[in-house]
Amino acid sequence: MKKTMLKITQTRSIIGSQREKHRTVMRSLGFRKNQQTLYKNDTPQIRGMIQKVRHLVVWEEIGAEAIPAPAKRSAGFSIIEGKRADKGARKRRAEKAEAAKKTVKAGKTKKAKTAGTARKTGKAGKAGKAGKTGKTQKTRK
User: Which domains does the chain have, with CATH numbers?
Assistant: First the structure.
């Protein structure tokens, strides 16, 4: 026995649909956007839902063999294997390692470079936080 399916296509938008029931039926059928085509089993329940929203959809009976295979989706990126995969990363790591060796040989480290650039803060900086007079305010009990 051949299994029959229904090819259902949404032809009109549900925006402005007068009844909330129509929107609910369209969502339960699985429609998300206009001109979308879905394939459903031919059951009395699906037929009833189609009858409720017959002014929004077009449908036809087809055999299960006539359904096209779903398109293979890509993940949005591709995985590269082999020498090409790490070429950029290896090069950057090698450059970083060479730069680190040069700084060690020269006797300079990152801490030595940043130590001389630190700002000095005195009492004026602390006084600005406390108030104009430099005195701390008393708290009331």
Answer: 4-66 (3.30.1390.20)
